[in-house]
């Protein structure tokens, strides 16, 4: 289901394309293109796709055969999306499984512009290793640093999923001048934990990203997939992840401007007015009051008591 426009008014229209990928790469790409077309028809200028949108979330298990899903960045997917971007006049953030060299892979987001084509990429810096999230098996940590991309309308800071739990990543990207922090995401519930922990887990995820918006006085968008993806096909009670959807965009005040449903496709189109950033930062001047002379210990793994 495609939702109607969520906001009207002046500013830049940003689209969050919540989707469920197919087991077919071509079908997944077509679903993404259809969402981008819908966003463009509603005057969006930037479209953000979910994390690893070209396939089911393969990191639920460790299987070397799945490295075959990776491709160079730039490569076939970015080339196809460049054509879509140019045809529709929209910028695109696309999260891809990057093959850098045999045995060396990254979780990477490419940024594509309708006039300048492929602008560059961000490689996910923080790599999780949790039950059903075996990303360290597949991805090397990013080595390009934090990145901000100049699209035609917005300065877009790109981060990816697990990065969203780290205020340092959001802060550094915002300090580079990002108007909007975007988090392509694949996050959900383990079915056996949903009843006991599900509400708290989702609330923590949402609260964390809203706090990035408040602390940095900028817009934040989290774009998730939805639906249940089993670890293995078949079985009476398959294990897997129930991705919780609920993609959202928050303003510089932390207020959610629009949110997608839990269990269906949606294209949210939200107006981002850059003037809101200055207004928020004038009222809450956190950048002004930062004690940059006192934060050196942040480069330590842990501050042990008694250390010099």
Quick summary of this structure?
By secondary structure, this protein is of the alpha/beta class. The protein has seven helices and 15 strands.
Itemize the secondary structure elements and their pairings:
Blueprint: E1 12-18, H1 25-41, E2 46-48, H2 76-88, E3 91-101, E4 104-113, E5 117-123, H3 135-138, E6 147-150, E7 155-158, H4 167-175, E8 180-184, E9 188-189, H5 191-216, E10 219-223, E11 226-230, E12 240-244, E13 248-250, E14 256-259, E15 266-272, H6 275-283, H7 286-289
Parallel strand pairs: 1-2, 2-3, 7-8, 8-10
Antiparallel strand pairs: 1-15, 3-4, 4-5, 6-7, 9-12, 10-13, 11-12, 13-14
Question: How many extended strands?
Answer: 15
Structural class category: alpha/beta
For the sheet with most strands, the description reads: 6 strands, mixed
The total of helices stands at 7
C-alpha-based Rg, rounded: 19 Å
CATH hierarchy, class: Alpha Beta
Q: What name does CATH use for the topology?
A: Nitrilase/N-carbamoyl-D-aminoacid amidohydrolase
As a percent range, the share of strand residues is: 25-35%
- Indicate how many domains the architecture comprises: 1
| Terminal CA distance | 58 Å
The CATH H-level homologous superfamily? Carbon-nitrogen hydrolase
Q: Which geometry do the CA atoms define? A: globular
